[in-house]
Specification:
single chain, 293 residues, alpha/beta, Rossmann fold, Alpha-Beta Plaits, six-stranded mixed sheet, four-stranded antiparallel sheet, 10 helices, 14 strands, 33% helix, binds adenosine-5'-triphosphate
């Protein structure tokens, strides 16, 4: 649905995004993850045709050009601070962009904004402004929605509601590209991960594939830990001590089992150990290894 090929984005002469390629299929929720300054906002702005770039961006097979934004007709976005007119009410802000009054009513109801939508936006709290920003992004049944830190300023109830709405739109075919620093939050909704670091796309993978990478280690206990440690160290097998036993990379499992048997050592317990999603992301960022889709 969204295809980005060799995107290079410039600010002045500086390359901010470097040859970035990724794709998001229709109805998928892609999490755009990366450290501060990695280039997440710049990627979103480039997709919206707001930056100077080379490469190709296609939305539903239509090409985004700096001078021609036809491809963006069915795209909604919330990037950085929502573009809200403070002296208009929330409703009138929505009315500026809505194709029909019914479309306004839909998002106002979905986002539970009825109680404050007729107030002037200048009197809104941070969370109310954020809700209005999300409402603007979801207005007019968009096919693609870009959300930069959508949960900023939202309380728990609103966060749960927005999460539910995003999933509901995605089930109906809307595609999402969402950045957030709160990995746990993204984990609850995203189907795909796009990892960006120093302006480069490090990884673009479905979450279920990444989860396979998390199952990398084994914990085990033997009837003689000190001898086991000496034996494995002599064989240069990297081991770590973990509470009552040892931990190895799963790739060494059969070798370790054979060694234990050959030296009359017995396994008392063996269990796979998944690193956390957060640990995996940090590892991928520090290794910097590109893993394609
Ligand atoms: N107007 C600008 N002039 C020069 N450099 C800029 C400008 N805007 C952004 N940059 C640089 O572009 C890089 C990417 O910034 P961007 O805002 O896209 O990162 P980000 O991943 O969204 O960061 P954060 O998580 O902190 O919001 C940063 O190194 C930043 O310094």
């Amino acid at each position: 649905m969204l295809t980005v090929q060799a995107m290079t984005t410039y600010i002045g002469h500086k390359q901010i995004i470097k040859q970035g390629s990724f794709e998001v299929a229709a109805g998928d929720i892609a999490g755009l993850i990366g450290p501060n300054g990695a280039g997440k906002t710049t990627i979103m702005k480039t997709i919206l045709g707001l930056m100077v770039f080379t490469g190709q961006i296609q939305i539903n097979h239509q090409t985004v050009l700096e001078q021609d934004h036809h491809a963006l007709a069915k795209v909604g976005a919330l990037i950085e601070h929502p573009a809200i007119y403070p002296f208009l009410t929330g409703w009138d802000n929505l009315r500026l962009y809505a194709q029909t009054a019914a479309n306004i009513q839909t998002v106002v109801t979905q986002l539970a904004m009825t109680t404050f939508i007729r107030q002037k936006a200048k009197d809104y709290s941070l969370g109310m402004k954020q809700k209005l920003g999300i409402a603007l992004a979801l207005l007019n049944q968009p096919e693609l929605v870009l959300l930069d830190e959508p949960m900023n300023g939202l309380d728990i109830e609103a966060t749960i509601l927005v999460r539910k709405i995003i999933k509901q739109y995605a089930r109906n075919g809307t595609t999402f590209l969402i950045s957030s620093h709160i990995l746990g939050e993204l984990q609850k909704i995203m189907t795909d991960v796009i990892l960006v670091n120093e302006g480069r796309i490090v990884l673009n993978q479905p979450v279920h594939k990444l989860n396979q990478l998390r199952q990398q280690r084994c914990h085990f206990v033997t009837d003689d830990i000190p001898t086991t440690v000496k034996l494995l160290q002599a064989q240069k097998i990297p081991i770590k001590s973990v509470h009552d036993g040892l931990s190895i990379d799963r790739g060494y499992l059969f070798q370790v089992q054979d060694l234990l048997a050959a030296h009359n050592l017995h396994l008392l317990a063996l269990s796979p150990y998944d690193i956390s999603f957060e640990q995996l992301i940090v590892r991928l960022l520090t290794q910097g290894n590109g893993v394609g889709r």
